[in-house]
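step=encode ok
step=design start
structure_in=
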């Protein structure tokens, strides 16, 4: 899980400043304002630590099979108008109750070599007052420092960081007794990044039936294509933990008034199964119901499938849902984050989702310290972020004018036009 994020010269962002990340963090804003870049920075690190090439400094993507996002080249990531040809990502991560793994801080800046390769310029890993730094020097050599020491513990090409987040084995050995903490920090950060669950804004359309190989998938997939495997495993594999997923999904579908229950039905004696949606006396194949149910299923599945301590990144979870169902998503995020110890970082345009979160705060069903809301807008070619200040009654003290429209103003204008029209008709 993550408690802070900071980007410098990264895509739309010249400098985000320190962005506090809570158990439920909501990103609002205009189109193409830079909201997605906040999520993409975490995906960039995730696909880097998952790279099979240990020596890589940053994996900008391009492999449609293994990568989460194709960032293009260095210039596509570098903020336009940046004074220096470097961009940076910094974050704080914590171990979610595992005392064996230290909480830590990560800061890394990236540049480009004359050959076009992306390289780490400086890396910082820290926990409490202890810190480890790797700084790039001329011709690809790196100097490694511990704490506030002015003299490096070592220099050389062999001390180059690996996958952005780790000192190489040679550096760990060089640090002696300090090397173990440096290695533990890297492992803790790697675990936090690998454990990110991500669901993009476009989910795969449902099929009439599915083949199941009797396995439980490790991830949902960025387009939700493994969500069905998760639901099949939950329904068909024995065990209370598996059953909780499909039961939780059915419960939230009911609260959203989309269905009473979701069931799995085997097609004859084959290895193909259909997802069945029950609502009252009506029983339908998932393929034959409204698109809203199939689009929200991966959201509900990942909320119950992601292990404790994971960060779940969601883009437009409310897409194709009616207003009531959109609002209930706010209840899902608050309740599931508290019950299962997962973190939701959500990009949305949904006013209904946002308004329900305000109501939950006013009803004391959510705590202000567990929720963060940010409004992102574009000014003078750069993204700017406004932390929305919510009090314990859910009121926003610095709401950006006109983002959700002006409901009261529209009502007032409708009334004015009605009276004018009636006056003309009577006159």
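sequence_out=
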């Amino acid at each position: 899980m993550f408690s802070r994020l900071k980007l410098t010269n990264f895509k739309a962002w010249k400098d985000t400043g320190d962005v506090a990340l809570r158990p439920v963090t909501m990103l609002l804003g205009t189109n193409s304002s830079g909201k997605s870049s906040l999520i993409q920075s975490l995906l960039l690190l995730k696909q880097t630590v998952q790279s099979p090439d240990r020596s890589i400094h940053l994996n900008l993507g391009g492999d449609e099979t293994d990568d989460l996002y194709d960032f293009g080249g260095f210039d596509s990531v570098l903020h336009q108008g940046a004074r220096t040809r470097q961009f940076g990502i910094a974050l704080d991560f914590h171990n979610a109750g595992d005392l064996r793994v230290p909480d830590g801080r990560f800061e890394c800046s990236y540049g480009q070599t004359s050959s076009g390769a992306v390289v780490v310029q400086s890396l910082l890993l820290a926990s409490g007052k202890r810190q480890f730094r790797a700084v790039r020097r001329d011709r690809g050599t790196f100097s490694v420092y511990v704490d506030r020491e002015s003299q490096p513990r070592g220099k050389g090409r062999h001390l180059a960081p690996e996958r952005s987040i780790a000192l190489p084995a040679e550096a760990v050995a060089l640090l002696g007794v300090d090397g173990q903490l440096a290695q533990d920090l890297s492992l803790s950060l790697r675990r936090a990044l690998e454990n990110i669950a991500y669901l993009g804004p476009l989910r795969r359309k449902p099929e009439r039936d599915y083949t199941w190989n009797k396995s439980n998938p490790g991830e949902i997939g960025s387009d939700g294509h493994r969500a069905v495997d998760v639901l099949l495993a939950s329904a068909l594999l024995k065990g209370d933990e598996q059953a909780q997923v499909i039961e939780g999904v059915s419960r939230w579908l009911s609260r959203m008034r989309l269905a009473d229950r979701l069931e799995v039905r085997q097609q004859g004696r084959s290895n193909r199964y259909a997802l069945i949606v029950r609502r009252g006396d009506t029983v339908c194949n998932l393929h034959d119901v409204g698109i809203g149910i199939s689009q929200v299923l991966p959201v509900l599945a990942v909320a119950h499938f992601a292990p404790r301590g994971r960060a779940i990144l969601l883009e437009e979870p409310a897409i194709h849902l009616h207003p009531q169902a959109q609002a209930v998503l706010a209840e899902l995020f608050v309740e599931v984050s508290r019950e299962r110890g997962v973190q939701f970082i959500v990009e949305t345009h949904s006013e209904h989702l946002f308004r329900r979160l305000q109501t939950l705060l006013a009803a004391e069903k959510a705590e202000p310290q567990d929720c963060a809301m940010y409004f992102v807008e574009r000014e003078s070619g750069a993204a700017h972020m406004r932390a929305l200040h919510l009090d314990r009654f859910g009121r926003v003290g610095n709401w950006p004018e006109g983002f959700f429209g002006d409901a009261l103003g529209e009502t007032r204008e409708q009334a004015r036009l009605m009276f004018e029209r009636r006056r003309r008709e009577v006159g």
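step=design ok
step=annotate ok -> The chain has a mean pLDDT of 90.
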